[in-house]
Structure formats: C-alpha cells, structure tokens
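I am still getting used to backbone structure tokens and would like to learn alongside you. Would you supply a protein for us yourself, any chain you care to pick? Start from the sequence, derive the backbone structure tokens from it, and show both lines together. Go ahead whenever you are ready, and we will take it from there.
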Amino acid sequence: MFLTVPSFHYVQHASELLVIEGQVVRVPSGICSKEDLFQALYERMNFPGYFGFNWDALHDCLTDLGWIPEHRLSLIHDGFPELSPNERRLYLEVLADAVHLHTVEQRRILDVYFPEDSKKSILRHLSR
C-alpha cells in the first residue's frame, strides 16, 4: 500500500461542501465500527454485490471503480470515523493507495475530503 502522506482535502465544514462535477458520496458522521463503515460505503457507493465487507475488498473496489460511470468521484466525510487506531490507519491507507493509483495511472479522479479538525489526527495515524 501507498504509505506517504496522501493528497486528501481538508475543509472547514465537510457537511456543507458542494461538489458540482462527477459522483459525490457522503460518509456520514457517527460511524463507530468498521462494519458500519463498510455498510455505509457499500450502500452509498453502490459497490458490486461481491463486495466482501473487509479491508481487501474495500481496497479492490476503491482502486477499480469500474462500475461508476463518472470520471470523477468525491468521497466526502462529514466526520472522521471513530474506529480503533489500527482500523483508522488501515482505512486511511486504503484511501491513500486508491487516490495514488488513480492519480498515477490516470484512471479516474478520486477526491477524498475530511473535516479540517481531523487533519492532525489523520496525519498522526499515517505517520505510525
């Protein structure tokens, strides 16, 4: 997985962010388990039925995105998921790897947004 600091976007009020181009997926605040996270992403991103509800399956889906017709996808987090430190790191690594692969291989544009107040925590998790 891609382990350098990813190109995430940080905004003051993610819940108020308006994106005009491409598909927009909002990850709601209040997610407290990886199961809740997988379910929210499965439903909101319309993952294929074969999605396995685990980190490898999430990585596969986010690095493929073949079922999404739009070229640009904006994944907007209304809050930073309240996962265990290890699960947070895994989630951030999956997101970072997906952003990196889509950027380098010019597959699609994947923009990942988090609230500004989660930036220090995100960078801390990724630096471990």
